[in-house]
Structures are given as C-alpha cells and as structure tokens.
C-alpha cells in the first residue's frame, strides 16, 4: 500500500516535495499533539515531525512516525525517501499547494488563465483538480527534477 503522510509545524516545504513525488500528504501547522495523533491514526498516515517527544508518544500508541532531524529540506527529503523506500510517481504528481492531483490540460483550454508569454513559450500544461492552479515546466523544473532524482539516487545507494 502507498504511504500517506501527515506533517506538522515547520515542515511546509517538505510537504510540497512529498506531494510532487506523488504522495498524499497533509500539513497541519497549528494543531496540537493530541489532534495530530488522532488524524494520523484515523487516516492511517505516517506522522513526520521535528518534535522528538511527539514521535515517542505516537510510537507508544502504535502510530507510524518519523523524527525529522535535518534542518535542510533537501536532506530531510533524502531521509524520508530512504526511510520509506519512496519513488517518483510521475503519473500521480500532486499539487504542492493543496494535495489534489494535477491533470494534463490542452493549453487552449487555459489560455485566459496564463500570461501570454507563457502560453507562447510552453506546450505542456497541468491544472490542479482542487485549487485550479496552472502548472508548466518552467525555469524551476530542472532544479526540481534534480532534487527529486538526487533523493531517489541517494536511496538506491544506501
Ligand atoms: Zn491545488
């Protein structure tokens, strides 16, 4: 079964990476420990946190939980990808903002929703099923791919 995640506190950026990899990930910034554990349990999510005590409490209750020790997002991503033997699920990329699936869309359908420059320059577009944000493989994309590929390679070399 595919892993699902629940992230807390300062892990907003790691949340976005896990969604890009294709994993169902929710992020709760201001929830108390009790609530976090309750949601992880009821939705069968792995709790990722920088709170070591919370990890201990969760594990005692039989909740899958992982203590994020790295401050650097990319290093934290590497750790999580290795720990849970994750892959880059390109068919299931999720919106980094809202966790919904991205769908390929014909660019003529979204012409009015993107700058003309972008319309003329790019061919492949995706629209988020949830928040309707439009995505394309812009100048950031090679960097994003490098980070993801590094995390997967790092896992394979362990
Ligand atoms: Zn979205």
SSE map:
Layout: E1 5-8, H1 12-21, E2 25-28, H2 33-42, E3 46-49, H3 52-60, E4 65-67, H4 73-83, E5 102-105, H5 116-121, E6 125-128, E7 134-136, H6 141-156
Parallel strand pairs: 1-2, 1-3, 3-4
Antiparallel strand pairs: 5-6, 6-7
Descriptive account of the structure:
The chain folds into 2 domains: 5-91, Rossmann fold (3-Layer(aba) Sandwich); 98-156, no CATH class. Helices cover 39% and strands 16% of the residues. The chain contains 6 helices and 7 strands. The protein has helices at residues 12-21, 33-42, 52-60, 73-83, 116-121, 141-156; strands at residues 5-8, 25-28, 46-49, 65-67, 102-105, 125-128, 134-136. Helix 1 (12-21) crosses helix 4 (73-83). The structure holds zinc ion.
Query: What do the pLDDT scores average to?
Result: 95
CATH topological fold name of the largest domain:
Rossmann fold
Secondary-structure-derived class: alpha/beta
Number of strands: 7
Keywords:
globular; 7 strands; alpha/beta; 3-stranded antiparallel sheet; 4-stranded parallel sheet; binds zinc ion; 39% helix; Rossmann fold; 158 residues
What's this model, at a glance?
By secondary structure, this protein is α/β, with parallel strands linked by helices. It has 6 helices and 7 strands; from the N terminus they run βαβαβαβαβαββα. The longest helix has 16 residues, at 141-156.
